[in-house]
Specification:
Elements lengths: L8 H27 L10 H50 L7 H25 L11 H9 L1 H4 L3 H5 L5 H8 L4 H18 L5 H26 L4 H32 L9 H25 L12 H15 L18
Length: 341
């Protein structure tokens, strides 16, 4: 997630420059064919093209709204994970009493809270286990992932070993869905505590409500992750945008036709600059609008615009370990440049 209020101008130029140059080059080809090769049939009235542009703008706007809804739902889910984790830790600290705050009680509270931290990180890693960036990342994306590799925190053992014993980590790692089985283990341990009269039955019910909420939040994350944005919307948005930008220079011939025909010789190059600029700017705007939707449709990848799960996981860790009374805490997750992962 980009954390600065303004996007770096260099990034804006890098993203839009290629599209603008390609569009300007296509406009140059169209202009030369019309002005010097006499292919006057290339001239198309601009009014129907502008109508197409309006339709494309509506279509792209719909796609962007739907993509943003996926991102915002992902962010709300992780906000719920933060709150449910705090609730779990509060219940553990309030309800788990074995003797008078004995060493056994402290160890038990630590185990239950640390397993919750393991679940948070396991869910984060599972959501990022597969990524569309693994297929054919662009050069810019590949370079960014290499530069920010230290901020990704993707190693399973490194991230979970501080919170689980070696035996439990090995056991959980063998499951197809480790996060689910960590919550199962929490419920089983609560039942054991009730059987041993170390936990009140009503307190167990309250804590199982939190476990059920965590299951629901995990399921919502998995639904977004495993349900791609409908490709008919994504692909036709791209097709329509490219078709429109292809037609723009043909329509601009109609706009600049009188000026072109009034010039002779080298003077016919006079309308070139405004035509190139117009074609480049129009294509840049529409392709940027279309690309914004692509950047928001998958909120659990490694994109610059994703839900900052690393940062949220670290926030949960700091809060819960402070509840345990620990003082040797990690620092808040730092951004990588202007990006929070």
């Amino acid at each position: 997630m980009i954390v600065t209020r303004r996007i770096n101008l260099r990034l804006v130029i890098l993203v839009g420059l290629r599209v603008a140059l390609v569009s300007a080059a296509w406009a140059a080809v169209v202009y030369m064919l019309y002005a010097y090769a006499g292919l006057h049939f290339l001239r198309i009235p601009f009014q129907p093209i502008s109508t197409i542009g309006i339709a494309v703008a509506f279509y792209v706007g719909f796609k962007n709204n739907a993509s943003y809804d996926r991102f915002w739902e992902g962010r709300k889910i992780w906000g719920g994970i933060v709150n449910a984790s705090r609730t779990w830790a509060t219940n553990v600290m309030s309800y788990i009493h074995v003797g008078d705050d004995s060493t056994e009680a402290r160890a038990l509270r630590r185990e239950l809270i640390y397993r919750q931290l393991a679940w948070v990180n396991a869910l984060r890693l599972q959501l990022r286990k597969t990524s569309r960036f693994f297929d054919k990342p662009s050069r810019g994306t590949k370079r960014r992932l290499q530069q920010h590799g230290d901020h990704m925190r993707n190693d399973w053992d490194t991230e979970l070993s501080p919170f689980l014993s070696a035996e439990e980590l090995t056991e959980m790692s063998a499951f197809a869905n480790p996060a689910t089985n960590m919550l199962t283990r929490q419920g089983q341990q609560l039942a054991t505590l009730v059987d041993g009269k170390q936990l009140n039955l009503f307190h167990q019910i309250a804590m199982m409500d939190v476990v059920r909420e965590l299951y629901a939040l995990q399921g919502k994350c998995e639904r977004i992750k495993n349900t791609p944005f409908p490709r008919q919307y994504a692909e036709f948005s791209r097709v329509f945008t490219r078709a429109f930008t292809f037609l723009v220079p043909l329509g601009l011939l109609d706009v600049f036709a009188e000026r072109i025909e009034a010039m002779q010789g080298w003077g016919m190059l006079m309308p070139v600059i405004p035509m190139f600029v117009s074609a480049g700017l129009i294509s840049w705007v529409f392709n940027t609008m279309e690309g914004i939707g692509d950047a928001s449709e998958d909120p659990f990848e490694r994109s610059m615009n994703d839900v900052p799960m690393n940062s949220l996981s670290r926030t949960i860790e700091i809060d819960l370990r402070q509840m345990l009374g620990e003082t040797d805490l990690p620092s808040k997750e730092p951004p990588a440049g202007n990006i929070m992962y």
